[in-house]
Amino acid sequence: MSAEGKYLRPLKALGDILDDYLSYLGMERGLSLNTLKGYSCDIRHFFEYLVVISKTPVDVEEDDLHQMLVAVSEMGVQPRTQARMIAALRSFYKFMRLEGYVDRNPASNIDMPRLAHVLPDVLNVDEIDAMIGCIDMSKAEGQRNRAIIEVLYGCGLRVSELTELRISRIYAEDKYLLVEGKGSKQRLVPMCDATLKEISSYLEDRARLDIKPGNEDILFLNRRGRKLTRVMIFYIIRDLAELAGIKKRVSPHTLRHSFATHLLEGGANLRAIQEMLGHENIGTTEVYLHFDKTLLRKELMDHHPLYCR
């Protein structure tokens, strides 16, 4: 609402505003499909709350948002979900300002809840080798699954990046992958010889598939010649971990986290790890990495002047 108390622009129906907002997120911000779904859900809940308090998005004050978040917290919604809701509200009102509906953002000063960083388990090299050793190579998908583990652990890819990986973006001579990460941002990720070998062997098997139209350039396919889903990758990794007798909670992200942790423990530069993981913020990389007490003590003993004399 403007200083004169009038709307800057006539308000559309809430459904139309939501559609415009999601188009803005997808086309102008380049957010991932998962983020779009989460934000869409959050703003729909926000609209339902507006009905309860008999207000429009233009009438909302900061205190209204605080009251909504208090109610959400009392319902037992986790802090991480609350943080996403706040991010969605900030983004929504940024869009509303750009479109001329409001001249302020009532969500801009709302504090994010404090999040506890729960790090996933890390697999050691023996555990990863044990998972690979449990792959039944007599099955048609055996070599494919070996290549999947090599790429997840050897390149540190997100599962969404793995499912979208394209053959045309594998530069075997230079030993690099061109990966499209969050927000359609591309990065080059180096590959080792072992990863290249497993991909090359899998491509021989892949050539025998009846590949469906639209999947010709997708690297990892199911038996019907279609792109693997994220859920299918999750089941592949989970089942191999169970066969290997690993008691930790193992998912595709565990391999990405192990990739980063093993690089750090081997002495890799944190900035280099950040680039390979595709993190915009170095703080995100630091959260991913698991420092155990033995490593911290070794760093202290090796580098502090009191211990190096």
Q: Which helices and strands, and how do they pair?
A:
Elements: H1 14-29, H2 33-53, H3 62-74, H4 79-98, H5 125-133, H6 142-155, H7 159-163, E1 170-171, E2 176-180, E3 186-190, H8 193-206, H9 230-243, H10 252-265, H11 270-277, H12 282-288, H13 293-303, H14 305-308
Antiparallel strand pairs: 1-2, 2-3
Written overview of the protein:
There is one protein chain. This protein is mainly α and 309 residues long. The chain is built from 14 helices and three strands. A three-stranded antiparallel beta sheet has the order 1-2-3. A hairpin with a 4-residue loop joins strand 1 and strand 2. Helix 2 crosses helix 4, helix 6 packs across helix 10 (252-265) and helix 11 crosses helix 12 (282-288). The protein is elongated and about 65 Å long. Residues 1-7 have low confidence and may be disordered.
